[in-house]
Each structure stands twice: as C-alpha cells, then as structure tokens.
Amino acid sequence: KMNTQFPEYKQLDLVKIAEEELNFWKENDIFEKSISSRDGQPPYVFYEGPPSANDLEGIRAIITRAGQYHYSDIEQAAIELKKLAE
Q: Which domain of life is it from (predicted)?
C-alpha cells in the first residue's frame, strides 16, 4: 500500500505546479542527493535518442534513459553552450 499523499489541484496551473516541485527539490536538496548517492561509483552512461526506427519504447529504453548526468558534465555543457552563443 502506498502511503504517499499527493496534492489535489482544483485547477490545472502547470506553472504553479512546476514552481512547487522545483521548490521541493531545492528545499530537500534532491539533485545534490541524487549525485552524492553515486559517489565512488563508475559513471553512468546516459543514452538519448529513439531506441529504433520502427518500434515503440520498451523497458530497455527506460533503463538507458534513467541514468544520471554528473553535475560536472552538466556544468561543462552549460559553459560550452555559453561559448557557442558568444
């Protein structure tokens, strides 16, 4: 039995919901915990793209997309994008 309570919204306000989720992640250091939980582990490769040209996504696609980027990789990508924009 799942004991988690989720908020019910009277009106769909995606901006408000996104802000609430972002605040929850910030207040609880969710991203930082997701990175630190893998300390000492080998890097997890994150494959992006369609699993095949003529097949629906299955569990194999979900597993390969469920990996985490390391924060340094994301930070480096942001730096490179900024340089390209200049």
A: Eukaryota
Please state the separation of Cα 86 from the chain's center in Å.
27
> In terms of domains, do 23 and 37 share one?
yes
In the chain, the number of structural domains is 2
Instruction: Tell me 43's DSSP state.
Output: P
**Which is more confident, 29 or 4?**
29
Residue 8 lies in a domain: no
Domain that holds residue 26: 13-42
pLDDT tens, residue by residue, 24-68 = 999 999 989 988 888 888 877 666 665 555 555 566 555 555 555
The answer to whether 70 and 35 have CB atoms below 8 angstroms apart is yes
Asked if pLDDT for residue 76 goes beyond 80, the answer is no
Amino acid at residue number 11: Q
Token representation of residue 36: 């630190």
